[in-house]
Amino acid sequence: HSSGLGIQLAFVAVALAITMAFPLVVYPLRAAVNLMLVGRPQLDSWMEHLLQTGGLSVAVLLVALEVPGVNVVFQLLGSTTSAMLCFIVPGVLGLLAGCGEQPRHRAGIGALIVLGVFIGVTGTTITLLDIATGKR
To answer: What's the predicted TM-score (pTM) here?
Structure first.
């Protein structure tokens, strides 16, 4: 029975989790937008702060209403973050740690990074093509 107390409690729990987590997402998003636009993470006035926060919230709402399902979000996140975490970041950290001093090691690390970029771009492209063709 879909209108039971357990289902209603689950909806309330998810709504509370999303409501409480949203400010934690908006702060770094706002700081990143500020760094790109004005070169510093904080704006000068509260009015700019409120307008930017409102604009970002409306943009997030419009994207959420337009995305066909949560599976698309998981596909996009999975295709990008898994490639980054499994291939690209370890390769870059290996280079930064000095593991690429020998040409053979440097070639292996480079191959790891290139493979990660290929996997990330391919996964993201497939997901976007599925969205564009209406398969999702």
So the answer is: 0.55
